[in-house]
Amino acid sequence: MALSHDISGALSVISDFHAVLDLAGSGADLPPNATKIVISSNGRVRSEIPILTHERILECVTVTTNLYLSAVSFVPPPVTECQYCSDRPDTDFDGNGPCVWFDLTLWVDAAGKVLSATIFMDAWESKDDFSTIHHDHTEAVGTKTVELFRAGDNETITGFDVNATLHEQYIDSNTNPDIRVYTGLEPASKIEFIGDTDDDEAGSETGATISFRPIAVKLERCEYK
């Protein structure tokens, strides 16, 4: 006599509808801690697909990178128009200064990705007074921004160990280079200024060469583990 057993409770019934979700070409980038995919249309949830993954934890550490930067030179352009002059300004300081106003500013962009330096320099013809300018209005003035460091994709700049600004002003008295040396936390260790020369110089020679001191940049580096 044959024996029979009811095993219907152990059967798994598969529906006639099958679907495969191919997210590779859709542009969908699931976050590492996603728990489900929700399918909706016309503002209504049609179905939910659970996702079982190993939960990934975002870990962040603070690291420091030391920058040893090359010197940066800047020659501001000459002023070519003057509403107070009968003629166009020339480019020769001709022993009249120049008066030099210089600013160096280090700054990090809003995203915390790029450390830059902005250089401003204004040199104008005047014998011995910052409040005046010579009648022919010889002047070179301008701004230059250079990128010093760019953080990696998983890094954010949180600080640096030098002062963010440096200011210098003086009145040139000869045709030799003028060298300023800085100590402490100033962002530059040395700046070599060119003011007046033996020839026409505004826009061609008058300028500054900045030697940066070593800068330690603090970074927050984050990775999923």
The largest β sheet comes out as:
4 strands, antiparallel
Low-confidence region ranges: none
Question: What is the mean predicted local confidence, pLDDT?
Answer: 87
Domain tally: 1
The overall strand count is 13
Rg over CA atoms: 33 Å
Q: What is the H-and-E element order?
A: EEEEEEEEEEEEE
Q: How far is it from the N-terminal to the C-terminal residue, by CA?
A: 62 Å
Give the helix proportion (percent range): under 10%
Which structural class should the secondary elements be placed in? Answer: mainly beta
> What's the helix count?
0
Shape: elongated
Main sheet: which strands, in order across? Answer: 4-12-11-10
Measured by DSSP, the beta-strand proportion falls in: 35-45%
Walkthrough of the structure:
The chain has strands at residues 36-41, 44-50, 58-67, 72-74, 99-108, 114-124, 139-150, 155-160, 165-171, 178-181, 188-194, 207-212, 215-224. With 225 residues, it is mainly beta. It has one domain. The protein has a four-stranded antiparallel β-sheet, with no helix packed on it.
